[in-house]
Amino acid sequence: MPSVYRPLVNFVAKAMQAVLNLALLCLGIILVVFLGKETLHLATYCLRRSGE
């Protein structure tokens, strides 16, 4: 590959890596939130059942 395209390739690679990192971060946050909600739901269900 000619050295003329090297900066463009590096820029595109870094941009794609940044987009992928942001997407994975968002996915991780969403999964943690839903896991927390499900855990709280299960805990309240178990506590209500044990109180009967």
TrEMBL record:
Q: Domain of life of the organism in this record?
A: Bacteria
Q: Is Transmembrane helix among the key words of this record?
A: yes
Q: Which terms are listed as keywords in the entry?
A: Membrane, Transmembrane, Transmembrane helix
List membrane-spanning regions. Answer: 15-35
Q: What protein does this entry describe?
A: PsiE protein
What is the native source organism of this protein?
Klebsiella pneumoniae
